[in-house]
Each structure stands twice: as structure tokens, then as C-alpha cells.
Amino acid sequence: MEDLKTKLKEQIIEALNLQDTKPEDIDDNAPLFGEGLGLDSIDSLELMVLLERQYHIKVEDPREGRKILQSVQSMADFIQSKQPA
Amino acid sequence: MKGKCYIQGMAAISPQPTFEENCFSSPISFSTTNLLPCLEPDYKPFIPANSLRRMSRVLKMGLAASLKCIADSGIKVSGPIVTGTGKGSLQDTEKFLKEIVTYKETALNPTPFIQSTYNSVNGLIALQQKCTAYNNTFVHRGFSFENALLDSMMLLQEGEDHVLTGAFEEITREHFYIKSRIGFWKEEQIDSRELLSHHSPGSVAGEGAAFFMLTNQPTEKSYASITGLKLLYKPATEKLLSALQTFAPAVDAVITGRNGDSRFDHFYDTVEKYFGNTPQIPFKQLCGEYDTASAFGMWLGAHLLRAQELPQAWIGQPIAKPVNRLLLYNHFYGEQHVLIMLERV
């Protein structure tokens, strides 16, 4: 799980071009939007694309997306729940 | 021309250090690859980091140049924004198209698509300035900047106090390659400083963003006034000569878009011959060739009119003072021709 979260942070930094941000600067449970990283609605679309490209997971329901993209922890939990046992 | 049009502020990002203060004291930059890329400034003082991370090159260049132009003019209230671009954001367009292929039309990132639209720069300026006034981007190949200028001048005649007018263009490696296959650039690699002494087909590629705050009233700070504008599409020599008569005879110098392309030099030869001993000031050795290069020529001419001098390294020759009337003549690969009359304020 820790490896997945670290990898996810690296992928978020690259996808959103978060200059001057390192994986260790991102708290697992900090909100990604508003506070924390201060991301916006365009970023949320880009994170959806990231999930689809990197993990082959398509989020169909936008309400579900809001919960999944709350934090790195919630994203990692979601990815893990979709991976075959 | 009925109304008056004055350049109250301006800014340019180009292959030369034009964004810096005292840019004319810097040596001119050059290239030996037939591609003159812009010298990009540090954008952080102009654009918030959170916005900057998402922008492609031409968006950053356009927005930063426009903001510096607004600051230079001293005008605080936003008004109409009119720009021209031949190609818009090529970097975003290429990224979006490549992703369509790579991801088989699924999982497409929205940002490059949004930013690949031609009016992205205008939108960013308007958002940044909280401006809800008239907002238009002209995309007419070699007439893009010229139509933006024409529209701006008409807006001033209709009563607007000021209009932010600009042009922006970028070149990418991919686009450079595509255009090289259809003969836009020289086959032999040359030093861009020696562009005009290489008479062969093609020119060198360039790019840039230039913005002007145009007003209907002059001030002590005004750079120049624009007193004439004529656009000609694929003119015969007689038609070009007839257009030149509108501006002759009292022209102190001609700013010429001569670009070393032997296929279209005859147009510049016609203008040079018509004006006899009038000094010819070329500018494409500084900025390269691109759809909206005449915006750079206008920026250079306006500087010359206000300062009454420019370093010889930039304009190739000393110019006798006073310089009161400058005619800018440029064409884009023999098709879109423009004549802009600039006068000292």
C-alpha cells in the first residue's frame, strides 16, 4: 500500500505538473482540492484520466469520483479495491 | 483615415531579449539551425504558479506580453481585447492529437484540448483582468495580426478609449519539419544574422508575441501613431505600386519584412525601388518568419519613432534624424501583404 501511495503521488505530480512539489510534501490524508494541494475542477478531470490511463479504471459516476479524489489515501484505497485479489 | 490611433504601451517576447528593460543594450541573439526560438522570460512575476503549471509555451508568452503591455500603458480599466494568430497553440494541438492516437480516442486529457483553441490567450487575459468587454481572436494566416489591428482601429473610431491588440505565434520541432517539407525554410543551414545575404528559396522560422495598447488620444508617453493600414491579397506589381502611392512621398524609412526568400524578393525590390534612397530597415533577421511577424516589425518601428534611434546591430544602418514617418511593408510568402504607416507623436 505504501508503494502504491508513493507511486500515485509521483504520478499526480507529473500529470498536473506540480512544480516544486515532492512526493513527501503530499500528506496521505490531506484534501487534494481547495486546501492541501489546492487543485481545481480541471485537475479533477486530469486525475480521472490518470486513473484510466495508469490503472485502467474508469469512474463513470461523478458523485463517486468526488469521494475517490478526496486524498491520496482515498485514491489508493479505490485502486486497491479494483485490483484483482 | 478618419480616426486617430496611438500606441500607448507595448511589450514583446521574441527571439531577441525584447522583454528585458534596456533590451537594445544586449547583443542580438542568433541561430544557425534555421529556427529562431523566443528568449522566454521568468513568468513567475506575471502569472500565478498554480496557473503557470498548466499553460503551454505560447499561452505563457501571450499572457506575459499582454500583462507587461498593460502595465507599460498605465491604463488600469480593461477594455476590448483583440488578437491575431496564424496557428495558436501548436504545442497543445500536437499533444492532443498524439494522445488521440496513443490512447485510441479514450482517456483524453482535457487541458491540451482546451488550450489548443485559438482564443485561449484572449480568454486568459480577460480572466486575469476580469474583463467582460469585446474579445476577439482573428485566425487568418498571414493576415491575422493585420485584421486584429484593423478591428481595433475601427473600435477606436466607434468610440472605445483603448483596445489591447496583439499577436502570438509559436514554432515547434514538428511544425518546423512539416513546413520544411513544403519549402518554407532554407535547405542550407545559415546564420540568422546573415539571413538577407542568402538569396535562396525559403527563410528561417521564427516566433513571438507582441502586444500594443492602442488609444484614441495621445500622451507624452505615446510611442507612435498609426495613420494608415492597407491589406493586399496576392497583388500584382501595379496594384502594389498603386497602394504605395497612398503613403508616399514623405517616408523617412521603410521597415521591410525582407526574409531572404529568393522566390518573393521581387516584392521587396519593387518597394525599395519605388522609395529610391529611403533607408530600408529589415527585421526578420531578428525574429524569423512567421504568420504574425509584422507585429514585431511594428513594435520595432514604434520604438524607433519614440527613441529616434536604435542600435546599428539591430537595424543594420544608422538612420538620419528626425524620423517622423515610417512605412512598414511585409508579406507572408507572397500572399498576404500589409502596409502600415507609423508616425511620430
TrEMBL record, chain A:
Chain ranges passing through the membrane: none
Domain of life assignment: Bacteria
Carrier domain residues: 2-83
InterPro entries named in the record: ACP-like_sf, PP-bd_ACP
Pfam families the record matches: PP-binding
Gene3D superfamilies cross-referenced by the UniProt entry: ACP-like
Protein's name in the database: Acyl carrier protein
Protein species of origin: Chitinophaga terrae (ex Kim and Jung 2007)
Lineage: Bacteria, Pseudomonadati, Bacteroidota, Chitinophagia, Chitinophagales
From TrEMBL, chain B:
Annotated Gene3D superfamilies: 3.40.47.10
Superkingdom as given in the UniProt entry: Bacteria
Entry-linked SUPFAM superfamilies: Thiolase-like
Any GO molecular function: acyltransferase activity
Lineage of producing organism: Bacteria, Pseudomonadati, Bacteroidota, Chitinophagia, Chitinophagales
Domain Beta-ketoacyl synthase-like N-terminal, chain residue ranges per copy: 45-175
InterPro entries in alphabetical order: Ketoacyl_synth_N (IPR014030), Thiolase-like (IPR016039)
Organism for this UniProt entry: Chitinophaga terrae (ex Kim and Jung 2007)
Name of the protein described by the UniProt record: 3-oxoacyl-(Acyl-carrier-protein) synthase
Coiled-coil ranges from the UniProt annotation: none
